[in-house]
Amino acid sequence: MIYTLSDKLILYLEENNVLKEEREIYLYGAKLAVSSVMGTVLLLVFGLLMDHFIEAVMYELIMSSSRSILGGYHCKSYTKCICTYVGLFVINIMMIEVHSFNIVEVFIISIITLLITLIMCPIQNINKLISSKKKKNFKIYSLIYICIYLFAVVYLFFIGSSYLNVLISMLVIINMLTIGGKIDYEKNKK
Fold it and tell me: What is the pTM of this model?
């Protein structure tokens, strides 16, 4: 479906003389845009069906921002990416419904997140390497992002918000995607 919609978009652009050169770049962008929209819509539908729409919006905002700043694991196809994205949301909701994090768990997960960010981030993609200067900048952005995130965790803890569990379970998922991305990068760069 992603390929069909992307091809139709490219065909439309070609017929209207929008595309003259670099067709492959536009096709890649179209596939990425269609995939992103489909993933977001599917996520929000699942959020509505599971009666966790606010959590779905939080998940979308946090995951999209963390992935662009921290990097992480990349699936090999758009379909796998959408299924993984929505599947991790469902796991996130199931995790918060069966487990409430205590202060010790929050502290341990926060420390692990800081260590992972300091040691591994940003995670590069083998298909899109960044210069050492940009990598240094993204390291700083990664640390700022995680510090802001952890500040939000501390704030939600002190006000006793139920959304604390959402943020902590998402940190677990972000950490897993970061470690998975690092392993995948190291394996594929050889």
Answer: 0.76
Which pairs with CB-CB distance under 8 Å and at least 24 residues apart come from 51-56? Answer: 52/93, 54/163, 55/89, 55/92, 55/93, 55/96, 55/163, 55/166, 56/89
What type of residue is 126? I
Backbone angles phi, psi at 125, to 5 degrees: -105, 135
- Calpha distance 59→17 (Å, rounded): 39
| pLDDT by position in tens, the chain (length 190) | 656 666 666 666 666 555 555 666 666 666 767 777 888 888 899 999 999 999 999 998 988 888 777 777 766 777 887 888 889 899 999 988 898 888 999 899 999 999 998 888 777 766 666 777 887 888 888 899 899 999 999 999 889 888 999 999 989 988 888 888 878 777 877 6
Handedness of CA 177, 58, 102, 118 (dihedral sign): positive
